[in-house]
Amino acid sequence: LTCAAEHLFNLKFAAKELNRNSKKCDKEEKAEKAKIKKAIQKGNMEVARIHAENAIRQKNQAINFLRMSARVDAVAARVQTAVTMGKVTKSMAGVVKSMDATLKSMNLEKISALMDKFEHQFETLDVQTQQMEDTMSNTTTLTTPQNQVDMLLQEMADEAGLDLNMELPQGQTGSVSTSVASAEQ
Fold first, then answer.
1. Are 2 and 58 contained in the same domain?
2. What does pTM read for this prediction?
3. pLDDT, tens digit, for every residue of 40-96?
4. What is the DSSP string of 119-165?
5. Are 162 and 185 in contact (CB under 8 A)?
6. CA-to-CA distance for 53 and 76, rounded, in angstroms?
7. 68 and 122 together in one domain
8. ∠ CA 150-39-33, rounded to 5°
9. Which domain holds residue 127?
10. Are residues 53 and 115 in the same domain?
11. Are residues 66 and 121 both part of a single domain?
12. Does 83 lie in the same domain as 117?
């Protein structure tokens, strides 16, 4: 059980580290979005597209870190259940021995107290098992649509108060500078 408890600690630590990495990626995504706005305001669509790709990459990385953290949490919950089961098994063995001795003497108060303890241990086990199942059911998989970069560019342009014509074929940026000029007027 000592080895399992050590592994449990390491798993929980890894899950926290993955969560920290996810938050770091979220911050970097926000910074990239701010760079997108600045590039759009300057009319530099190539730079804006590069920052949009970086923002999408950071977002996907944050999601992947969260997904991995959830998986590690699920494994940690399983290890926690195993550790708890080991403890409960030892306790149950002690309870059974005590029940044998008590049944021989037929002391009803001792039998009742032992049964209460036995039921309490099973309730604790049920709570921990439910927590593990909840953790497992909360892990999700996400997919990323192909047009995220264009949508992010449009969103950043809208936030910057600019009209971005996304219907143009890629590579034509002439009307973007016109839109910027009209927005400045």
1. yes
2. 0.54
3. 999 999 999 999 999 999 999 999 999 999 999 988 888 888 888 888 888 888 877
4. HHHHHHHHHHHHHHHHHHHT-------TTHHHHHHHHHHHHHT----
5. no
6. 34
7. no
8. 60
9. 107-144
10. no
11. no
12. no
